[in-house]
Amino acid sequence: xxxxxxxxxxxxxxxxxxxxxxxxxxxxxxxxxxxxxxxxxxxxxxxxxxxxxxxxxxxxxxxxxxxxxxxxxxxxxxxxxxxxxxxxxxxxxxxxxxxxxxxxxxxxxxxxxxxxxxxxxxxxxxxxxxxxxxxxxxxxxxxxxxxxxxxxxxxxxxxxxxxxxxxxxxxxxxxxxxxxxxxxxxxxxxxxxxxxxxxxxxxxxxxxxxxxxxxxxxxxxxxxxxxxxxxxxxxxxxxxxxxxxxxxxxxxxxxxxxxxxxxxxxxxxxxxxxxxxxxxxxxxxxxxxxxxxxxxxxxxxxxxxxxxx
Length: 309
Ligand SMILES: Cc1cc2nc3c(=O)[nH]c(=O)nc-3n(C[C@H](O)[C@H](O)[C@H](O)COP(=O)(O)O)c2cc1C
Known about the structure:
Blueprint: E1 2-3, E2 6-7, E3 12-14, H1 23-31, E4 37-43, H2 44-48, H3 52-56, E5 67-72, H4 76-84, E6 93-98, H5 103-106, H6 118-132, E7 136-143, H7 151-160, E8 165-172, H8 183-192, E9 197-200, H9 206-216, E10 220-223, H10 233-238, H11 246-260, H12 263-278, H13 284-293, H14 297-307
Parallel strand pairs: 3-10, 4-5, 5-6, 6-7, 7-8, 8-9, 9-10
Antiparallel strand pairs: 1-2
Helix pairs in contact: 1-11, 4-6, 6-7, 7-8, 11-12, 12-13, 12-14, 13-14
The structure holds flavin mononucleotide.
């Protein structure tokens, strides 16, 4: 399939996950077959005002391609300026966040709050498209209030603005990450729009992928939490043979992060990843305790030596 002319090798994509979708982990997911990866949400205002924190989220290895950068914001002017920023030039697609449920974001009229205003959605997609000159996708929820779906009208509004694809995480903003993803909402979006639709939510294995496929009829499938600690899930779902060595993966991950970040930042980023790599294993608790006490990258490397060799 392709998104606005960007060709994807398969229909399995890696979701943006704040705190996890760093350049290293995106690279690793892509190496296991994720056909598209995406940065975590980056504030349009933060970028425009020159925030270093926003810029740091936009590091990416040249070989992790195609890759999308995700912007969030509720003001078309800021979204235009951010999309035109040269730090986004290395990305293939710009994704607009219309799903973030967090109070600070929502109360600012950003993230999932955009779903209250379809005409603003159209304006924002147009602005990001004009600013970046790249294909623009949007990632949305089912709606805001439980039982009151808004996804179809919001998807149509995005399509009117020129969106190249829509991802639906069919939970309401009120639900945050509770309950289960209702892929029938994604099916309704798929019926309504002509552009590709990506189903997201609760895909963790072949069975749940099949459920999402049948219920949504979507063109592609996005995996988030199911990939944490298990980047090989993309090969597993595609039925391609793969090898996974947690220690080698951790070393590669650290090596990539060190290209762009000071060791202090690398250590912090790796803490949560190590806990996920250990999840479900005998050492899980010991790793959590050790990570909790880790102060620097040397400590992280010692944990890798002790528990992942
Ligand atoms: C810790 C965490 C951080 C997330 N950060 C983002 C984000 O930055 N941008 C975004 O669009 N979605 C974000 N999401 C939502 C995921 O991309 C995805 O839509 C959701 O987790 C459902 O998919 P899954 O069941 O495969 O995880 C986040 C989810 C979690 C749990």
